[in-house]
Predict the structure.
Amino acid sequence: MYEVTAENKSHTVQFTVLCFSDLPHLQIPLYIIFLIFYLNIIFGNTAVFLAILSNSHLHTPMYIFLSNLSLMDISYTSTTLPKLLFMLSTQHKVMSLVGCMTQMYFFIVFACMEMILLAVMAYDRYVAICHPLHYTLLMSPRTCLIAIISVWVAGLSEPIVLTMLVANLSFCSSNQIDHFFCDPSPLLKLSCSDTTHVTITTFIFGGLLGMCTFTPTLVSYIYIIYNILNIHSAVGRRKTFSTCTSHLTCVLLFYGTTFTSYMRPTSMYSPKQDKYFSLLYIILVPLLNPVIYTFKNKQFKEAFTKITKCFMFSKK
């Protein structure tokens, strides 16, 4: 499991992921709970994706972006929960360095994609509310395609440097990751190398990503709210605001859970707390996103009914 070097250090080639080892009597209940959550996430987001795909009335920029958000939520959760379910059911919690780096890379990829896509969706709502007459021009199919490709390219590119830096660290103090997946923070704690350059890189890339996504989202909603407040009719204000409430709720949910996990004071950090805070954005966000967007949405209900009828007919 360890390779000893001349400096009497060990380079870990395998990790033991502790998961929830501090709760040995709850391994089976936890497995059942996480399995239920995962199946609901897969079902809910797949249903949203199929509903948009099957209903031509939903082939608008906002719903096209939403279908991509559903794919990202499925992928985002699938980087962690299937492996966690396997470890809870078999108690085989060993992960190779390559497997750990792969999981960390794709976890960061889909998290970055979601942040960028939420900013794009905020701009879409800004154009729809503040510049409705120019909406079809500013949010043309070509613009939407470029935006979606940019989201995927930027998301896939952003974590490459960080992953390479972490993969080249030496791990000698322990091979036990006190988490349920390969999150960068617990990995850095295990390293006996100087991690200053990794910390600085994480801060720079994370700061740039945050500024480039959160700032446009915030500015878009400042203009949206200002525009809504200038509408004289109370009915008009409610109707206009209702077109962005779903997205705004998803934004608040995503950033709220992310900031709760990563923007806490250093004194509040602990491995046990980090594991439970991570569940907020890994499970809660992709679980609630489909509910938020489909709640009281007639077009989605019609699309779901159509899918159900087609499924029942094919089954017969």
